[in-house]
Amino acid sequence: MPDLIYDNHGRPITYLRLAVTDRCNLRCFYCMPAEGIRYLPKKELLTYEEMLRMVSLMAEMGVSKVRITGGEPFIRRELMYFLRQLSQIKGIRDINITTNGVLTTEHVPELKQLGIRSVNLSLDTFDAERFKEITRRDEFDKVRDCFEQLMAHKIPTKINAVVMEGKNTEDIVPLSELSRDYPVDVRFIEEMPFNGEGSHYPVLVWTHRKILEKLKECYPDIQKAKDPVHSTAYNYLIPGHQGAVGIIAAFSRTFCGSCNRIRVTAQGTLKTCLYDEGVLDIRQLLRSGASHEEIKAALKNAFSHRPKDGFEAEKSRQSLHPASESMSTIGG
Ligand code: SAM
Ligand code: SF4
Questions:
Q1: Does the model's pTM come out above 0.85?
Q2: Ligand 2 pocket residue status of 160, Cβ below 6 Å
């Protein structure tokens, strides 16, 4: 096992979130404007071969966990080919996927076969009409099928729901009930301003505190669970439920102190914090003929200049201030 690389705040870098595309088949209210975003020309996206080389180098530097995200990962052609190759990389022990589920169902058996560690299914409501309103697409049935298929194949699954004032707060309890009926964790996420337009509200209403109040109101016996070391969620157990319920304070940024993750966008930009505007152009390095050692040195340099937290990262942005790009280009 390679030695771990620590950032300038003593945090190990072990987890890569890789966006394989910026394209999407939904238009979630919190992620994109109704008309969508301007997609990158295809030649600006990293190729699978480039991604595989980059991940191999990162694995040699101690990265052992990868999350495939996007845009919608299953929109990218031959994603399963890429996952097969990725699962062969020495040192990558933990591959996870975040998906909206619309095109995922048919691939679930192979995901199981490949040993994909877990799937995060983004689902903000179990009500077909509200789903249509939030995602601006009529695809709920396909996402429900995907959920059922994941359960049938016993793939560890987490439901991610962004909580939005006036859109789906009535879904907090029905979604939590899924963790009673199925062995699934349900996580409620504070809405961030990454929607391609800027903040939807002068002040965020549905903060992690307010979400917890709502849960306590409905489940007075809810108990705090022990959180895994690098968890971004505060996890809770409800007596009688098979799965946990979690709250991710993504806007309040309470978890930065133990952050072990880096992100690479679909065009190959390294972000060492969700809130920074990109700190290294990996695509340029990969395409300029840089050696393995040169690329690793550039990565190491970026890891040793990480902001302490999301607030510091946001302050140091040069162009987009405050953060407002679409999450589909960042990967969540
Ligand atoms: N398309 C896939 C999906 O929706 O699961 C993967 C990409 S999506 C950008 C990754 C995650 O980011 C999703 O779980 C989504 O809910 C979350 N997300 C997107 N925009 C967000 C926002 N403005 N605030 C909080 N979470 C957001
Ligand atoms: Fe697409 Fe995921 Fe963004 Fe929704 S959250 S628009 S599914 S990338």
A1: yes
A2: no
